[in-house]
Design goal:
Number of helices: 10
Strand order of the largest sheet: 1-2-4-3-5-6-7-8
Mean pLDDT: 96
CATH superfamily: Alpha/Beta hydrolase fold, catalytic domain
Structural class: alpha/beta
Distance between the termini: 21 Å
Radius of gyration: 18 Å
Strand content: 15-25%
CATH architecture: 3-Layer(aba) Sandwich
Low-confidence stretches: none
Largest sheet: 8 strands, mixed
Order of helices and strands: EEEHEHEHEHHHHHEHEH
Shape: globular
Number of domains: 1
Length: 310
């Protein structure tokens, strides 16, 4: 069983209150803490089944809604929008502020970061900017884009921002960012088939009013800046060499180029001198491996990894 609770704290943007879900074990001692960073156009509450599983094994779990997502949205401001200036930096700073707050409540407990999709990119930025504050990190559904792809994306994003504004949606930019993801799964039943082979999961995502919103040009541009930071080897070299890192992804996940991008990121971490870096690709699974059929095997692998380092 888990005690579920919610709280807010001020964002580093000085304007927004960041919403947090927390799951706390009730039937055993606390082994450690897992902080979840969610993906684009979703929110922390979607991770409740995974959080309850970890809680049953002694882990406190916290998951905030990033700026412009879930319940971390200012009235009148668009969804899936990080803000006018320094949005990526603010989100990463909010993640670190949450870590500091929760660490004070559970002092001395091992503290882990779990980042999925955009959350994995944010987590990798956090590892660069705040080395030495974590006991481990799981990177789920990540990728490793080339400098040419990032530069091309920036050119298109900047052109569309000049035309439409940062808080607007651009079909052209959206197609560039997400349009190719469904191509391997034609004929596709929905535009989100790439998320999961589990149709019930895809349908639940589509039906959820807090999921799947139009990605603003501002967020698209902010993410490209973040990708430029996390794929630069000189930045990766700044990470804590003693930090355990576990890469997990489906081998049919287009975000990770069907595993190739995950392997690139893995090699870059090893090149940087991190001593405990491992990777597992799950056969036949797509992007949301925590919600796929067979998710119980992913849950167990993550738990085994956490317990070995707690």
């Amino acid at each position: 069983m888990a005690i579920t609770s919610e709280f807010y704290f001020p964002s580093s943007d000085g304007k927004t209150l960041i919403h947090v879900n927390q799951w706390t074990p009730t039937e055993r001692g606390i082994t450690g803490v897992v902080q979840i960073a969610h993906g684009v156009a979703e929110y922390g509450g979607r991770y409740a089944p995974f959080a309850r599983y970890l809680c049953a094994h002694g882990y406190v779990v916290v998951a905030n809604d990033h700026l412009g997502h879930g319940q971390s949205v200012i009235e009148g401001r668009p969804m899936v929008y990080l803000g006018e200036e320094d949005g990526w930096r603010h989100v990463v700073d909010d993640m670190e502020e949450l870590r500091r707050r929760v660490s004070r409540v559970f002092p001395g407990k091992p503290y882990f970061l779990f980042g999925h999709s955009m959350g994995s990119f944010l987590s990798r930025t956090h590892l660069i900017r705040y080395p030495g504050v974590l006991d481990g990190c799981v990177l789920c559904g990540t990728g490793h884009q080339s400098p040419a792809v990032i530069a091309g994306g920036k050119l298109i994003a900047d052109r569309e921002i000049r035309r439409l504004g940062k808080s607007s949606f651009s079909a052209k930019a959206d197609k560039l960012a997400f349009g190719a993801y469904n191509q391997p799964f034609q004929p596709a039943r929905t535009k989100f088939d790439w998320l999961s082979a589990n149709e019930a999961n895809v349908d639940a995502y589509i039906a959820d009013p807090l999921c799947g919103g139009d990605t603003t040009l501002g967020l698209f541009r902010d993410m490209l800046d973040g990708l430029g930071v996390i794929t630069r080897q000189s930045n990766i070299n700044q990470m804590d060499k003693e930090l355990p890192v576990f890469f997990i992804a489906g081998d049919k996940d287009p975000v990770g180029d069907m595993g190739k991008g995950v392997e690139k990121a893995f090699r870059c971490f090893r090149k940087a001198g991190l001593r405990d870096v491992s990777m597992k690709l799950y056969h036949g699974l797509r992007h949301e491996i925590l919600n796929e059929n067979g998710k119980q095997y992913v849950y167990r692998d993550v738990l085994d990894w956490l317990e070995a380092r707690s």
